[in-house]
Design goal:
The protein is mostly beta strands. The protein contains no helices and ten strands. It has one domain: Metal Binding Protein, Guanine Nucleotide Exchange Factor, Chain A (Beta Complex), CATH 2.170.150.
Length: about 110
């Protein structure tokens, strides 16, 4: 069953079918992060509700231009990574990054190519 905050919100699901996000915008309208095509939610501009599990410790990723610390958020059911935050970066504190193609608009739907 599709759960939603209200009809003015868009609901999204993990690929396993778990309800994961309601947001006041369509994900297609969100900007993408250049480094990894993650969708960028500006916390100051969008109203949203997440149903993710925040990992207890951040991870460190090695990138071409150095290292990046991320707080990962996982699906409550299958534990796949769905989103992350960038701690310690002042300019990133108001953003939540959604993993590209990690969420779909219908339960058990195939992500867009």
């Amino acid at each position: 069953m599709k759960e939603a905050i209200s009809k003015d919100f868009n609901s999204y699901f993990c690929l396993c079918g778990e309800y994961s996000l309601s947001i006041s915008s369509n994900l297609k309208n969100l900007p993408k992060r250049q480094h990894d095509d993650a969708l960028v939610i500006d916390k100051t501009r969008h109203t949203f509700r997440i149903k993710f599990i925040k990992q207890p410790e951040p991870i460190i990723l090695e990138r071409e231009d150095g290292y990046e610390k991320r707080w990962m958020y996982n699906c409550r059911r299958c534990e796949v990574w769905l989103a992350y935050e960038l701690p310690g970066i002042e300019t990133a504190k108001n953003y939540l990054y959604l993993i590209s193609k990690g969420l779909v608009s219908e339960p058990f739907a195939t992500p867009p190519v």
